[in-house]
């Protein structure tokens, strides 16, 4: 006796429906708790649509031919399309969805043709197999592009490739050997197809949930590192970035410039115009600075009215020129002026030491009348020469 005959087809079908229902409930729960989570509602809809589709197909012979063969399969096609759409939404992708939509419309129309006009079951099974196979391969490609060497995404790619190839292979085998007359017929071929369907639902649900879990964890982690008012890095995050850049600079030999930036007369803005005006000024400064940054520069809010800007791989004169461009850009807005202190890292210098020198330069800028830039050249300069090391 073949081991697959130990499994009951109706039990496998019930397991498919229960598993799809469970994943739909979990996804809707994610969506309810985190409304901004991309793709959850679409994926839940995909699982919910698949359940009646599977049931209608399985009830062939007990309900009308149109409901079972046409409606059931079209629901499954839409479910497969929504599974692909959900993955695209998770990665904020738009490529290939139009192709997938047109493809499913064509295969759906062909399925209707071979169900109502040219009533042949083999073309219908081949069309269904090709539809599932192509959409699985499209999903595999999307996840692969965004894999980023993450093991759960790589495993998802492998499972999608396997599902796609198996589905396409089923279409080829149907062309060669023909199709069974009874979908619920108890034989190894039909049981194998139902078992693969169950595994496909499990793989889709588990890996889609893992994609959203890691996406959600990344979002929460990013929010924990962001200043809620300006959306730039908070103090802890910017200090961590400074340490990372100093460690990288020690390995590469490139210096790192730290800029402490103070909003001039910020307390007066709050006292005169209110805290809303102060918040607006801080956000305007953050937006203006961010617009001028390179992809690998880092900006964070260091205190109430202070910002820390990290410029890797720049010397002091270059950092000074960048700081002047910030001041010029800000002068075109209604934001307050800035006092800026800049220090360039020495080899092996610690983050607190570099910040202390940048703070000394900022202190010098404030006492020079504000709205200016002061530089602190090196911690190695003799104390008697320290005053000469600060300037515009």
TrEMBL record:
Pfam families on file: GGDEF
- Report domain GGDEF positions: 254-378
GO process annotations (BP): cell adhesion involved in single-species biofilm formation; negative regulation of bacterial-type flagellum-dependent cell motility
The GO terms describing molecular function are: diguanylate cyclase activity
Q: What is its EC number?
A: 2.7.7.65
SUPFAM superfamilies assigned to the protein according to its UniProt record, in alphabetical order: Nucleotide cyclase (SSF55073)
Q: Which residues cross the membrane?
A: 12-30, 42-59, 65-84, 96-115, 121-142, 154-173, 193-214
Question: One GO CC annotation, please?
Answer: plasma membrane
**Which CDD domains does this one have?**
GGDEF
Classification via NCBIfam families: GGDEF
What name has this protein been given in UniProt? diguanylate cyclase
Q: Which organism is it from?
A: Granulicella pectinivorans
Taxon lineage: Bacteria, Pseudomonadati, Acidobacteriota, Terriglobia, Terriglobales
């Amino acid at each position: 006796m073949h081991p697959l005959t130990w499994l009951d087809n109706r039990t496998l079908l019930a397991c498919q429906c229960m598993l799809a229902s469970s994943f739909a409930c979990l996804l809707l729960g994610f969506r309810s708790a985190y409304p901004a989570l991309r793709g959850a509602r679409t994926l839940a809809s995909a699982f919910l649509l698949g359940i009646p589709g599977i049931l209608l197909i399985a009830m062939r012979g007990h309900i009308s031919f149109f409901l079972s063969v046409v409606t059931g399969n079209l629901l499954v096609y839409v479910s497969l399309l929504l599974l692909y759409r959900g993955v695209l939404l998770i990665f904020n992708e738009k490529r290939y969805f139009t192709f997938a939509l047109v493809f499913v419309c064509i295969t759906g129309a062909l399925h209707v043709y071979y169900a109502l006009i040219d009533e042949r079951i083999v073309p219908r099974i081949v069309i269904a197999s090709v539809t599932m196979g192509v959409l699985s391969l499209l999903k595999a490609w999307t996840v692969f592009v965004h894999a980023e060497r993450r093991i759960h995404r790589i495993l998802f790619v492998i499972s999608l490739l396997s599902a796609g190839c198996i589905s396409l292979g089923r279409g080829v085998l149907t062309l060669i050997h023909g199709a069974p007359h009874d979908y619920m017929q108890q034989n190894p071929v039909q049981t194998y197809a139902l078992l693969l369907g169950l595994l496909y639902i499990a793989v889709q649900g588990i890996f889609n949930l893992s994609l959203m879990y890691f996406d959600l964890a990344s979002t929460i982690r990013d929010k924990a590192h962001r200043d809620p008012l300006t959306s730039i890095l908070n103090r802890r995050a910017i200090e961590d970035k400074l340490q990372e850049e100093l460690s990288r600079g020690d390995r590469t030999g490139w210096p790192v410039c730290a800029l402490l930036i103070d909003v001039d007369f910020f307390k007066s803005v709050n006292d005169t115009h209110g805290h809303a005006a102060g918040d607006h000024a801080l956000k305007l400064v953050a937006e203006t600075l961010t617009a001028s940054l390179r992809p690998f520069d880092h900006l964070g809010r260091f205190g109430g009215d202070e910002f820390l800007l990290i410029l890797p791989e720049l010397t002091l004169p270059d950092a000074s020129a960048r700081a002047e461009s910030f001041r010029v850009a800000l002068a075109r807005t209604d934001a307050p002026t800035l006092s800026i202190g800049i220090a360039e890292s020495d080899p092996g210098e610690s983050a607190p030491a570099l910040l202390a020198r940048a703070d000394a330069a900022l202190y010098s800028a404030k006492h020079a009348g504000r709205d200016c830039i002061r530089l602190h050249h090196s911690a190695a300069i003799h104390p008697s020469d320290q005053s000469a090391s600060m300037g515009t």
